[in-house]
Design brief:
Blueprint: E1 3-6, E2 25-26, H1 32-41, H2 46-62, H3 76-85, E3 86-87, E4 92-98, E5 104-109, E6 121-129, E7 132-136, E8 140-141, E9 159-160, H4 163-177, E10 191-194, H5 204-214, E11 227-231, H6 235-245, E12 248-252, H7 258-264, H8 273-281, E13 292-298, H9 306-316, E14 321-327, H10 341-353, H11 378-389
Parallel strand pairs: 2-3, 7-10, 10-11, 11-12, 12-13, 13-14
Antiparallel strand pairs: 1-4, 4-5, 5-6, 6-7, 8-9
Helix pairs in contact: 1-2, 4-5, 5-6, 6-8, 9-10
The structure holds S-adenosyl-L-homocysteine and iron/sulfur cluster.
Length: 390
């Protein structure tokens, strides 16, 4: 059973036009230096900008405030001035669904860049587990990469998310979970994974800014060790994840030879397995304490044999790695089936015996289509079901 709440009406975005008719500039999603710049260009004296940025930063990301009038560290006239010039509005939460296993999924409506088109939507998913809670966020609306087992891959890329929209997914989840101010201990959201919709390395700059904001100790304070970026293998960008972002890396490997991987992850034709693994070997900061996670979706009769497991172990030799076996999550019209449980266990055993931790990821939130690879904007899903009904 799943519960679906339509909370669109309770969560209206604030009007985005200033009294003079100009759009109010968003402050959420600006890194610390960019926030200071925005304040200076709004007329705050340079000497004060650092302090003001600090006050705002605490208000936005430590306290979770959404209204300038609540920022009591600022004088009343300054609050009013900020209110006139800037906005703190979150994107609109269209629905929140809660799975029977406690997984939550939010459908979030973003601002439309084309007033004639439907506003794009993304999904974020919260997965509670004993002692930890992971928030899975999206980096693009749709995806260009068309992996054949992924539901998101069947949706065309609509656009990249801005840094503000990436950060907003955490703010929305924290709002819903009542997790303000940022707790030091006993948090509900302990980890973040960029494993929702889209390929984060095709939106590098915005993802980088967003992670800088998420990991800042004065605000949301999620350590980079607890933020994992998952890529389908955009080889030229992998080094930059280590040197410029410094978060954890996950690679969607899914196959141990090029012909199979070409089929599952078409990007493999551009960046084949050998090049991908070379980039992993050279990943800055790689060590036994900072391993790369290799994701491997278990597809019946495609990539799940004992030989595949042995080849996987051989390929990863010398790379500090964790292997995450993901039972395939079905979606309507998917051309694959999930491997049988026995095959998955045999596969896991071979990998374990070779010394790799290889947890089998328990599917979560399948009843609300929140599991890995099931995400797709609701509007797209409706279109798809209309097509299959014809
Ligand atoms: N584009 C990035 C991140 C988003 S996909 C990437 O591909 O890594 C997040 C993870 O979900 C990836 O490992 C992806 O391969 C996996 N995934 C996609 N579809 C899935 C499905 N139907 N069942 C299980 N896992 C899936
Ligand atoms: Fe895009 Fe990742 Fe899905 Fe492939 S698995 S289509 S890269 S979201």
């Amino acid at each position: 059973m799943s519960v679906s709440l339509d909370i669109a009406h309770e969560n209206r975005t604030a009007p985005l036009t200033a009294p003079g008719g100009n759009a109010r500039a968003p402050l959420i999603g600006l890194t610390w230096p960019k926030l200071q710049e925005a304040l200076v260009s709004a007329g705050i004296p340079e000497k004060q900008a650092r302090m003001r940025a600090g006050q705002l930063w605490t208000a936005f990301y430590h306290q979770g405030l959404t209204d300038f009038s609540d920022i009591t560290t600022l004088s009343k006239p300054l609050r009013a001035e900020f209110e006139e010039r800037f906005t703190l509005a979150r994107p609109e939460v269209v629905t929140q669904q809660i799975s029977e296993d406690g997984t939550r999924k939010w459908l979030i409506r973003l601002a439309s860049t084309d007033p004639r088109a439907r506003a794009p939507e993304v999904e974020a998913v919260y997965i509670p587990e004993p002692g930890r809670g992971t928030l899975c966020i999206s980096s693009q609306v749709g995806c260009t990469l068309n992996c054949t087992f992924c539901h998101t891959g069947t949706q065309k890329l609509v656009r990249n998310l801005t840094a503000a929209e990436i950060v907003a997914q955490i703010l929305i989840a924290r709002d819903a979970l009542g997790e303000w101010p940022t707790p030091k201990e006993g948090r509900k959201i302990t980890n973040i994974v960029l494993m929702g919709m889209g390929e984060p390395l095709y939106n590098f700059d915005n993802v980088k800014d967003a992670i800088e904001i998420l990991s800042d100790g004065e605000g949301l304070s999620i350590s980079k060790r607890r933020i994992t970026l998952s890529t389908s293998g955009v080889v030229p960008m992998i080094e930059k994840v280590g040197s410029e972002i410094g978060c954890m890396l996950a690679i969607s490997l899914h196959a141990v030879n090029d012909p199979t991987r070409d089929l599952l992850v078409p990007l493999n034709k551009k960046y084949p397995i050998a090049e991908l693994l070379d980039a992993c070997r050279n990943f800055p900061g790689l060590s036994n304490a900072r391993r790369i996670t290799f994701e491997y979706v278990m597809l019946k009769g495609v990539n799940d044999s004992k030989e595949d497991a042995k080849e996987l172990v051989r390929l990863l030799k010398g790379i500090p790695a964790k292997i995450n076996l993901i039972p395939f999550n079905p979606w309507p019209g998917a051309p694959y089936e999930c491997s049988d449980w026995e095959e998955i266990e045999t596969f896991a055993e071979i990998v374990n015996r070779a010394g790799y931790a290889s947890p089998i990821r328990t599917p979560r939130g399948r009843d609300i289509m929140a599991a890995c690879g099931q995400l797709k904007s609701e509007s797209e899903r409706l279109k798809a079901s209309a097509l299959t009904a014809q």
